[in-house]
Amino acid sequence: MGPEMKFDRQQDDALTELAVLFGQRYGRKPTLLSRAPGRLEILGNHTDYNEGTVLSVAIDRAARIAAAPNPDAKDGMVCRLYDIKGHSTREFRLDDLDNCRRGDWSNYIKGLIVEFNLQGFKVPAFDALVTGDVPLSAGMSSSAALEMSMTLILDRLSDARLTWLEMAKIGQACENNYIGAHTGLLDQISSLKGKAGQLIYSDFRSFSVANVPMPSGAVFVAANSKIKHNLTNEYNERREACEEAVRILGVKALRDVSPEQLEQRKGDLRDMVYRRACHVVGEIARVADGQAALANGDLTAFGKLMTASHESSRSNFENSCPEIDMMVEIGRTLPGFLGARISGGGFGGISVHLVQTPFAESYCAALGKAYLQRTGIDSSPMILTAADGAALWEA
Ligand code: GLA
User: Fold this and answer.
1) Ligand 1, residues 39, 40, 42, 46: which to mutate, most atoms within 8 A of Cβ?
2) Helix axis angle, 142-157 relative to 107-118, nearest 10°?
């Protein structure tokens, strides 16, 4: 996971191609190009909206957008979008954004424009070409990648000049208000603040972010269970359970409770609410332990924390699923295994594994084969590299 990977060149190639395709479709050059990566959550599950801490990485898979204002649009109100991968076109009016069509990819763009408008920034009519290689609905935050890539464009088109935190919050507001998923800020911050070869440590109370070097000797492998997760129902329920714990414990957030304090108040909480809180409080402690392990270059200890995190997801937070549990179990039997867990919101999506570098290729092959044999599902395990965060270029 060294910075030797040549991301810049790769980005340039993909964006150059996107600019050419933009010209072919819209008959003029794009003025703005952007790229924003997906993310892997490494430790600190469901801690972001509890004012906790998280270790994540931005990955070498990203959403990319080429865009230009369209002064000739019908009465200056029509935006045109084209998604290259899905071969799908969308056209909408800037004065008719309240028609969120359930499940439609353009919601992530319309919802952002609504938020820019609410903050007093006027987005002009524009055309955009969208593409990306973040697997969809897999727990790698393809939606946050699209949001942050588009936010960079909208920020420039509307001349808002937001800070990175304001941009992350606009993406979160789009999810919360337009999409209806009451998610935290982790995905947006990870997409913006990644650094090649480094983890991202985020504190969701102070909103401070630091990059933490990944010790050499291990890589992250992600495998897609292909179980689709839905972050609008069960995610919101988990959030409500955390809020109930906060109310009963009389604290500002679960960040304020230590594992020992929670144990003392166990009797005051319903069992389900106690177990949800136990997960969050335990995760915040594991992030602190994980940071110490990284600082000592102790990948074995770090891997164990990842597996402990999964066990807590499985039994306390109940946001795993049998297929992801199976992936973790298969991983444990393979050479090179250091740790594995569910990553992201949960209820499906991906498992992330920490694997000793020399075994990474054989680990991917063996994990994919065993999961396929047992479930009939191709999980395409892949080695993911920690990459730089989102960027905007004026073409
Ligand atoms: C999803 C949400 C994030 C975070 C994770 C769980 O990815 O979008 O805000 O809550 O789940 O840690």
Assistant:
1) 46
2) 40
